[in-house]
Write a structure and sequence with these properties.
The complex is a heterodimer of chains A (371) and B (131). Chain A has 13 helices and no strands. Chain A is mainly alpha-helical and 371 residues long. Chain B has a domain of 63 residues: NADH:ubiquinone/plastoquinone oxidoreductase, chain 3 (Methane Monooxygenase Hydroxylase, Chain G, domain 1). Classes of the chains: A mainly alpha (371), B mainly alpha (131).
């Protein structure tokens, strides 16, 4: 951020009279506002795409009334959520009930700070990037647990408790499955992790193809992350057919809307992390984005990053409408008896590979064979 | 360094302000017509039966304890992962010892049946695991 402001002052001499901190603060607020608009739009458009994808998969039409092909449906939904009466049940704990959406939404939105959207497009390249995302997204658990407890509703309480057990359990496989990317890059910063996957190998520079263990850990991560964001087949906290709607059953109007937006925000964060750690982030195959002029480099790398992340979001939706829901004991068994041991073995595999082959991946070794 | 983390603060504040602002706007636009029935707790249309703030078996007490141990482990392994390629074999052996000890713990908990959501569903309820 500081280097950006310095270059801005150099480019526009008029600004040199303005105090440094004002410029920095303005730049921060602007970047936060841009990402906020992105997160809200993604939630809206995502909800439309989700229903359209559901319609296609289930051989029905999906939303098709508002606007051409139903494309404006999400705007109608947004207006409706704002205009709906906001009801807090008489028996609920009013303070905690009101507090829960803040935790859920802020926890999901704060993760956007470190997402590397392009060569220079990152709100703040924290040196603890991956770690930070794991830390702030666990705020969502607090919010969900608060919502479940404060509602004073049996469905909500069961949903909240299930959510806590589930998110907490799957946090370990998620953390362990992301570690191979950190091992290879030797840094927690997401920009460093993305840069470590560049090179002229095209798609084979990606961590996904580095060695068999990293290939496997991408799928481990994607499975565990699907569970951590409460997506079907792991959507037990919501489970509309048994728990009605789970922890958010008493929420109405825009308060419910924030749970909804946070869910989509989490979906994007998961897809973006998978992209940054395993699918080469903003790298464009066979094109060196960093060497291009700043404007084109940023624009093209942004396009590449969003294309990869959106493709993963679509895969998540596809899984969501394909697989049936697990039972709660199967869910816990999946986390503790399969994913946790597998991610540990996988981590040891990656580190052993790096030790034996001096950090080189299979594509690099093949490339060096041909000179 | 500090400005990097100040951005995080700006994001958190802006996120919270957005929630508050949207709630405020919604408050001005929405109808207010609250009746006792509307404010009652939803229980599939039945008259709500008692409070839901009762003591009940949350099931995952032991799992929560195991989680803390493993979460600390993940937290410790991240710094290890960052400098692993510089330290080499020594770091690998250290992590191996660390992970093997934890896996032994997991194996013990697994054998005791604490990883099962419903203990009564075990094959041998009279055995060591099922009380």
């Amino acid at each position: 951020m500081e280097s950006f402001v310095h270059s801005l002052v150099k480019a526009v001499p008029v600004l040199s009279g303005v105090p440094m901190w004002t410029l920095t603060l303005t730049a921060m607020i602007l970047s936060a506002a841009v990402l906020l608009v992105f997160a809200l739009t993604f939630g809206g458009v995502g909800s439309y795409v989700l229903r359209k994808v559901a319609g296609d998969i289930q051989a029905r039409i999906g939303p098709n009334r508002v606007g051409p092909n139903g494309i404006l449906q999400f705007l109608a939904d947004g207006v409706k959520l704002v205009l709906k009466e906001d009801i807090i049940p008489a028996k609920a704990d009013r303070f905690l009930f009101a507090l829960a959406p803040y935790f859920v939404f802020v926890g999901s939105f704060a993760a956007f700070v470190v997402l590397p959207f392009g060569v220079g497009l990152i709100a703040s390249d924290l040196n603890i990037g991956v770690y930070y995302v794991m830390a702030v997204t666990s705020l969502v658990v607090v919010g969900v647990l608060l919502a479940g407890w404060a509602s004073n509703n049996k469905w909500a309480l069961l949903g909240g408790m299930r959510a806590a057990a589930q998110i907490v359990s799957y946090e370990i496989p998620v953390g362990m499955a992301l570690m191979p990317a950190v091992l290879i890059a030797g840094s927690l910063s997401l920009q460093d992790i993305v840069r470590s996957q560049g090179g002229l190998l095209g798609v084979f520079g990606w961590n996904l193809f580095h060695n068999p263990f990293t290939f496997f850990s991408f799928f481990l991560y994607f499975t565990a992350a699907q569970a951590e964001t409460n997506q079907t087949p792991f959507d037990l906290p919501e489970a509309e057919s048994e728990l009605v709607s789970g922890y958010n059953v008493e929420y109405s109007g825009i308060r419910f809307g924030f749970f909804f937006l946070a869910e989509f925000g989490d979906m994007f964060v998961v897809a973006a992390l998978a992209t940054a750690c395993f699918l080469g982030g903003w790298h464009i195959p066979f094109l060196h984005a960093e060497a291009l002029p700043a404007f084109w480099g940023n624009l093209l790398s942004l396009g590449a990053f969003l294309a990869k992340a959106f493709a993963l979001v679509l895969v998540m939706m596809w899984i969501r409408w394909t697989l049936p829901r697990l039972r709660v004991d199967q869910l816990m068994r999946m986390a503790w008896k399969y994913l946790v041991p597998l991610t540990f073995v996988n981590l040891l595999g990656v580190s052993l590979w790096l030790l034996i082959f001096k950090g080189k991946g299979i594509p690099q070794m093949i490339a060096s064979l041909f000179g | 360094m500090l400005t990097e983390f100040a951005t995080v603060l700006v994001f958190i504040v802006l996120g919270a302000v957005t929630v508050a602002l949207m709630l405020g706007v919604s408050r001005l636009l929405q109808p207010r017509d609250q009746t006792a029935v509307k404010l009652s707790t939803y229980e599939c249309g039945e008259v709500p039966f008692g409070s839901s703030w009762v003591q009940f078996n949350i099931r995952f007490y032991v799992i929560a304890l195991i989680f803390i141990v493993f979460d600390v482990e993940v937290a410790l392994l991240y710094p290890w992962a960052v400098i692993f390629q510089r330290l080499g074999l020594l770091a690998f052996v250290e992590a191996l010892v660390f992970i093997v000890i934890l896996m032994a713990g997991l194996a013990y908990v697994w054998k005791e049946g604490d990883l099962d959501w419903v203990r009564a569903m075990q094959e041998n309820p009279a055995g060591k695991g099922g009380k």
